[in-house]
Design goal:
By secondary structure, the chain is mainly alpha-helical. Helices cover 57% and strands 9% of the residues.
Length: 268
């Protein structure tokens, strides 16, 4: 008998919501489409099998009775024990078959079964938002100017619905519009007699106004900003705890390029 709690790394008093969150974490780590583990297919299958049993309150109750007897070695009588065994085995076989199918699809398609992170009450049926992260892993090729920074990078897809995607695109267009207005104002004749001390602040105020209009649009549509809220996604927080930083390369966190990229993302 398999120890599904051990497979998921959970305690026996875990809640269904915690089981679902744990599955999402492990699915990202071991789905064959994104994992470089040579045994990813079998690991993902077992994870999905365990998730299918433990996320179902009724199946979990039945499994716990068998778990106590055969895993914890607690001597107890189980009513209709053979029926419970057969039922758990049936669900297990069905889950493994489903897992094999899901292992063959792209991970970005798999998360469409999840809830949208940016807008509540909707499924993640849109293009996910990719949150790029990296972690410095030392220096290769020598020291100083002769060396280069090694890193590990990961692109975390944050579930997003079509509605949230549309609102994010509208927000992007609003920022582009105000940025264009800022450039036009900077070039207009009525500021030609003004110095940079006046021109630059006026242009920045226009750009800042575009940001406010964008966030007002998000607020009115009850949609979270991808720039400010994606970092709160549980997988992003998990990787931050592991030492990962935002950006696809160490130069984003070790050079002025990172600051420029941050400001660019803030504007757009």
């Amino acid at each position: 008998m398999k120890d599904y709690y051990k497979i998921l790394g959970l305690e026996t008093d875990v809640s269904p919501d915690s089981v679902r969150q744990r599955f999402k974490e492990l699915a990202f780590e071991y789905h064959p489409d994104v994992s470089d583990n040579k045994n990813a297919n079998e690991i993902f299958t077992e994870i999905y099998e365990a998730y299918s049993i433990l996320s179902n309150p009724d199946k979990k109750i039945n499994y716990d009775l068998l778990h106590d007897k055969y895993i914890k070695n607690i001597k107890t009588q189980i009513p209709d024990e053979e029926y419970l065994k057969a039922d758990i085995q049936k669900v297990s076989h069905s889950a493994r078959a489903d897992a094999q199918k899901k292992a063959k699809v792209k991970y970005k398609d798999l998360i469409k079964e999840m809830d949208c992170f940016f807008k509540t009450g909707l499924k993640a049926d849109g293009i996910p938002f990719s949150y790029n992260m990296h972690k410095t892993a030392g220096i290769s090729g020598g020291v100083g100017p002769m060396g280069s920074i090694k890193s590990r990078s990961v692109s975390i897809p944050v579930p997003r619905s079509k509605k949230a995607l549309m609102i994010h695109r509208i927000g992007f267009l609003i920022k582009v519009l105000f940025f264009a207005i800022a450039i036009i104002i900077y070039k207009l004749d009525f500021l030609s007699d003004k110095g940079l001390v006046t021109k630059i602040p006026v242009s920045l105020i226009v750009i800042f106004t575009g940001g406010l209009v964008t966030h007002l649009t998000y607020h009115l549509n009850k949609t979270k900003s991808k720039f400010f809220y994606a970092r709160k996604y549980f997988l992003v927080k998990k990787y931050r705890e592991k030492g990962y930083k935002r950006g696809f390369h160490p130069m984003m966190s070790t050079t002025p390029v990172g600051l420029i990229a941050y400001l660019f993302r803030l504007i757009f």
